[in-house]
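Note to self: the last two entries modelled the partners one at a time, which told us nothing about the interface. This time every component goes in together.
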Amino acid sequence: MGLSACALLWAGVQTYIVHSFGFIWYIAITDGIVNTILLSAACWLINNNLRYYQPGKGSYMNLLMWCLSLAGICTAGCRWIIPYLSMSSVYMVFLTNSLTIRFCTDFLALGWMAVVSMLYYTQLDHKETEKRKSEAEKLARDAELYNLRQQLQPHFLFNSLNSINALIGFKPEQARKMIHQLSDFLRGTLKKDDQLLVPLVDELQHLNLYLDIEKVRFGHRLETEISCDEHCNEAMLPSLLLQPIVENAIKFGLYDTTEKVTVSIRAEIDGNNLVVMIQNPYDPQTTRPKGTGFGLRGVQRRLYLLFARNDLMETHQNDNIFTTIIKIPQV
Amino acid sequence: MKRVLVIDDEPLARMVVLEYLQDFADQLEVIQECNDGFEGLKAIQQHQPDLVFLDVQMPKINGFEMLELVDNPPSVIFTTAFDEYAIKAFEAHAVDYLLKPFSKERFNKAIEKYLSQAPVAAQHAKKTEDLLEAVANSPAQHERIVVKTGTKVKIIPVQDVIYLQADDDYVSVFTAEGSYLKNKTMNFFEQMLDPRYFVRVHRSYIIAIQQITRIDPYEKDSHLAILKSGAKIPVSKTGYVKLKGVLGI
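The predicted structure of the combined assembly is written out below.
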């Protein structure tokens, strides 16, 4: 539509210009129409080409050559076709003399067409890529979260049920309490939307449910220390973010040593960030932490997806203590 | 009277087993409870029990690793929460296995199965050996090798292994710190170690690929791999083909 309107306008203007040089309308119109048809065909060719093929940075020269040669073909077309339609020796002289200016205008028109279509299609392509990327990321995110949850559940769940089974026999009250803790904990993991930011105090409460259950399982071997400045309580963080880190800490702490294990969690505000530090003992002789392990990688990935930063989580190992520090920017 | 050992790191989990065992008090006697694999190993060597209830996931060394260190493994009933891979192995080779939480009825069944098979204890030992070989290629078992040096247990991360050499009924595990004997076959280790990092280059040798500095031609059809430690390891014709495949040359 746009292209044909442009073509009509172009034909009109050209006809008028030729007429203003003193030629009769018939000759002027023939000139205008023939040239416009050729030029439109060339424009369509360029436009169509660029739709399916985006020139890379190095091939702009190619595009220029294309424009030049198409402009040449258009001009040559006019030179050989128009004389068949309108014979006039005066006009022939005019036509031959105006070839250079015809070539230049054709080239400018084609160049303009090429630039416009290139920008348009590049931008379209970019949008498409962007959309695909965000969809892919969303899919990956869902899958990852699903996996992370699956990892958490089976062992923990079955072992907890086994502990309840034992308690029913001789401490029914405690068995009942543990069932409630377990239910509250599971409800918490199901309910929470993973995008949602929650106050630290809520997240710690949820974490405490988990830790209490683990303490029943492992008896006096597991101890926890949670310290949190009062003004941290309302700081926001993505829900269930700390869970895999603490789980990791417990796993390494409990399965890496046979002694008592203290897992400590400390939260503080540092400038515009909420900083949470989680520490657990480990045995450097038998454990070679490979990178950060799957659970922690998931946390890092999630922080990246939410805040587009890769520097929000770090881990340190020294003196048999493994430390994980995460920073959550506060909006 | 059969003598029973209960090994689990969760006190409540042990209590379930003890409670359920009360009904069999006239046939089975619990001689000890153990918190982890080290205690378990010591107790097995000391008491030579007839039957062991064994958890898989435990601190430091897991149930399988502990069994690997026992010379004449007793009959074992595994108690575990969830381990897809291990369950396959149990079905094939264990006396029985109990998935936590298990019912009294299921537990009784396992005990009856054990009691009815008990006279053929020698077979159980063989079965336990087979089981360990079967779980050796479970992903969880790739990480480290557990060996006994005297009375101590040494855990060797596989990254520290330079090469393995067959040594009669044993396999020597060579690390930078020295070598350790393990009462297992080369096949066991070939199954256990990640084939991307370890190659059996010879009937009697498995080497860590990262340790190779160069490979020289040796006599007809055979080569010699020179390791960073200076060790020269013979590479057989088929070993050389395997090595080339893994190295991509």
